[in-house]
Amino acid sequence: MEVSWRSYWVTKSLKNKIVAIAAIGLSVFQLYTSIFGGFDAIIQRSIHLGIALFMIFLIYAYKGKKAIFSWLLSILSAVILGYLLWNYDWVVAERFGLVTPLFWYEKILGAVFILMVLEVTRQVVGGGLVVCALIFLIYPFVGPYLPGIFHTSTISLWDIIDFNYLSLGGILGIPLGISATEIAQFIIFGAILLRTGGGDLINNISAIVAGRMIGGPAKVAVLASSLMGTISGSGTANVATVGTMTIPIMKKAGYSATFAAAVESVASTGGQIMPPVMGAAAFVMSGFTGIPYVSIIGYAIFPAILFYLSLFVTVDLEARRLNLRGVEPDMTLKRTLLDYGHMAFPILILLYLLIGGYTPRLAGGYSAIAAIAFSFLRSTTRPNLPKILDALEAGAKGMLIVIVSTAAAGIIIGSVDLTGLGQRLSSGFMSLTGGNLFFGLVMAMIIAIILGCGMPTTPAYIIMAATIIPGLIGMGVPIYVAHMFGFYFACMSLVTPPVAPTAYTAAAIAEADGWKTGWLALRLALIGFIVPYLFAYSPTLLLVGVWWEVIISVVTACIGVYSLAIAGEGYFLSRLKFFERIIAGVAAACLIIPSKILIIPGLACFIWLLGIQLRLKERKLENKFQKKKE
Question: With a threshold of 0.90, does the pTM exceed it?
């Protein structure tokens, strides 16, 4: 859809014009530094965060008489981070962190800076992350009075301000650095692609491939959300974009509102674990572990396939149970490829660059530029200047929640580093679990889900990486497995009641009961809660190990996931009796677990169940034929 200059710019208020200029400037800055090389860390991160703070105070402006404070805080945020740029040599080379005394104005600027980050976190993310950041911010003051592993030496207020404002260890630390150099480019790429025909290509291809199938609308939702997840990596964003199209179609096809909302919420949550983007946390994982990003997406690919296979089979069985038919897609494959097919090339370029060993920063930047360039090849996708500016603005606004989350997470990481709490928590975690790996995994899962209920996936995973994941590594779990475990459950919190944000968002679109949708989504996403335990004990599901063992694990896991969907849905070739669901559940457990001993019992249960269902279906056909004959 064409965007006119009037609708984009002329009708904007002065405040929105200023926000748009700042947003476009941020996107251009990110693309420029991704292609031509970034600035020194403190410059790159200060500009990245400074523009974001400036925008947020205007976008989330105070109302009424307090509105003037929004403008003052926007200007003050530019002054505070501008000080770092203006006095770059002093901050980086001439002073010694935590040794050189702060000037009086540095104390004021630093204190206000920390309060600003907490305030924008409250506005953009919510209270959960603010409370968590405050706890870690206060901890150094009360640590000297706490017993055991929580006891720490005395740390002054000025040390905390110094560490968070004038160093790369607190707010301007690793999490924000990854946001400023790697995550931003992918968000901009996704915004450009979706506004230049990429979204239409994904939706149309999904409808053409799955629309005519039994239960086609739900399968379209699963496919579209998984493909959309490769470029957005945000569960809530997936629901908001894909769900507005798929949920009404699913309801019209005969699915209940609750089931339609649950399917979309689970499918959208899978976008967080679907390579190549996997949400911002995948980039943070690469930064924390030092594992190349391409290796991380290699580990993630098969668990993501299992997740979507489980959901795809479930919606298929539900459609067969309800005898639902497919729908005819609005566009033909030929028309779709002619109009939008060229917009697949930016995605292919992204994959080629990532697999080819280029840095995510460079891959994201080149792919974003490629998306603009390829969009000019056809009139159906060719953008005018306002549309390009709108895409750049949307990309910058899409970054805000990630920028704020990583900045607030920096406070937490900074407190852990400053007090040495991380090492003590790791040893305490091992003592609490008695060195028992299973108990350690269960405790890590519970903590990840609790954290994820109160904040986005990225900061939840970052806190896990600073506190609990080192404990799992200390218990002998490989570093990439431990981080994948924590990351998975931080994602699964999106569909875990009582919060389940993606489920409630989908329920609002479907006009369904949010509570029922949340619990149904939990059942549909069950495989996402099982697989992390399995690869914690055997990394073959992460495609690591001897090739023949990996192949056996892949094949049996796929059959096991199919059995799990059958057990959960209570339907195979026909409605299952209770004992048949038990057989399906046993088959699922035996086949999903990567153990050679359990393969034969699992296959035996599955074949037995298949035999029972085939005999029952044959009997029904005979009875039907006999009645017709009579």
Answer: no
